[in-house]
Amino acid sequence: MQQVSSFPNALRLNFPSTMADVDEVSQQARSFLLSHPSIPEPFSLLLALREALTNAVKHGNRNNPDLSVECLI
């Protein structure tokens, strides 16, 4: 997984299309969102993010770890 921070107060991740990486990115996103108390309802955002990442891996990239997913929060 590659973390790229080109925006202030943003988390940008690029990771292989595996469900294990979705789990890791979700944990990093959780930590990031909880470190920003001004973000309302981080649970709802995390739920939507996890669903979007899962769809990207399963349906967009067909679980092909040679392909990657980019996430910007």
Question: If you had to describe this structure to a student in words, what would you say it looks like?
Answer:
- The structure is a single chain.
- The chain is of the alpha+beta class and 73 residues long.
- The protein is built from two helices and three strands; from the N terminus they run E-E-H-H-E.
- It has a three-stranded antiparallel beta sheet with strand order 1-2-3, covered by helices on one side.
- A hairpin with a 7-residue loop joins strand 1 and strand 2.
- The longest helix has 19 residues.
- The two termini are 15 Å apart.
- The mean pLDDT is 91.
What does the radius of gyration come to? 12 Å
Characterize the largest beta sheet: strand count, sense, and whether it forms a barrel: 3 strands, antiparallel
SSE sequence, one letter per element:
EEHHE
Q: Order of strands side by side in the largest beta sheet?
A: 1-2-3
Mean pLDDT: 91
Distance between the termini: 15 Å
Could you say which overall geometry the principal axes of the C-alpha atoms support? Answer: globular
The percentage helix is 40-55%
Number of helices: 2
- Name the poorly predicted regions: none
Strand proportion: 15-25%
- Structure classification: alpha+beta
- Count every beta strand, where a strand is a DSSP E run of 2 or more residues: 3
In brief:
With 73 residues, this protein is α+β, with helices and mostly antiparallel strands. It is built from two helices and three strands. The protein has helices at residues 19-34, 42-60, and strands at 2-4, 12-16, 68-72.
